[in-house]
UniProtKB/TrEMBL annotation:
Keyword match Signal: yes
Biased composition range(s): Low complexity: 37-46
Region ranges (Disordered): 29-50
Keywords: Signal, Transport
Protein name: Carbohydrate ABC transporter substrate-binding protein (CUT1 family)
UniProt keyword Signal present: yes
InterPro entries per record: Bact_solute-bd_prot1, SBP
Signal peptide: 1-20
Family according to the record: Belongs to the bacterial solute-binding protein 1 family.
Amino acid sequence: MKKSLMLLMTLIFVASAMLAGCGKSNSNGGNAPANEGQTTTNNGGNEAKVNDEPFEITIRHTQVGESKKFRLALLEDVVKKTQDAVPGLTIKLDAVESEVNRKEKLRGEMAAGKPPEVFDVFGSPDAALYAKEGLMLDLTPILDELGLKDKFTTLAPFTVDGKIYGLPIGGSIEGYFYNKEYFEQKSLKTPTTLDELDKLAEAIKADGKIPFAQSSKDAWIPLMTTNNLWSYYAGPEITYGFKTGETKWTDENMVKAVAKHKEWVDKGYYKKGELGFEYADMRNQIITGEAVMMMDGSWANSVFRDPAQAGDMVGKIGFFNMPPVNAGDPVVVMQDANNGYGFSAAVAEDPRKLQAVKEFIKNMWTDEMQLRGLKEDGVLPAMKMDLEQMKTTSDDALMQDIFKAVSEIGTSFPAFDALVQAEVNTALSMGIQQIIGGEIEPAKMLENVQAAQDTANKAEQ
């Protein structure tokens, strides 16, 4: 994350505030009748004719690259169903890489007040910021109309003042993918404590392998490890207090957590040069056998189940949760449903576009599509579903490991970037990359993050 992004964010949200003051479209988009998009005309014979004049909406998605091909196929099928159901509708798919969409393109469009009709978005904090500017469609009445409001495991990341401004596409947990074949050959067992994980890493490094695959060009990737570590050392509840000032980044247990991450870097548990590696590079470290374990989101399972991507490693990769500090302590895991789709408030001004959005929602968020996403792409459902039903949907061994990991969770928490301001995320991202690069010590790094937190909190008062 570059320092200049902090200035960019400031400019963007100042611009957003100015635009919001000029008057935004009505956000009560779902209050119109369900058939409002079926505009009719009288042909002189007292027969109603459906308005089938051509019109278009854009869906901004992030299903880019080989690893997301199954998700793209699912989206394309939903698009086809939606187009077939709405006369005259053409849906344009606009593919943008996830980080570029979230941190550059969508922010710029929101500042200009012109986002696409449908767009990939993170619920917290992004959707909340855009919703408060009047830029996102209130989905509450639409979900009531479609009978979907109570069907989700959680809508908290997309809820602002009791209104819903987006829908999660799936759920996820974070943990370690690992080379099961290697573990079997070396008679290694999955760890039950962090000390055992340390000893595993030492043994793997002594064998000439990289213990942990890692790519740190994008800071959110190594921060998965840091976030899980501090949720053990300081407790997952600490992250909720940063924004209110009730807790501090400089807490001694936070320092211990960052120091543990630094210790792993210093011991050579990651491949040298990780700051220059892209996201796909660390997966390749596992696939080629260069590395043995990898912290990532459960969504990455689709790569390791696809022969076109994982080759001979299909069927040889397992998954386990990061273990607790002490034996017998509850397993603490990042688990959320914070990524999904949002909708432009401007849709409410066009009955046909509003009907297209309703049809898209009706087709996308079904048990069938959730289970298909689970079976084909390994995405955990965002809608309520029995764990046993999930287990029978996919008999894949890696997915069974992930289901087991879900069943072991004692305490779950959302990722840190759902709980802190964007400028704090920027400071933390810069900090972890400085830690990895050996440029700063943990205590000083966290002092810098706390300074950013204090500034952000003061700005919101």
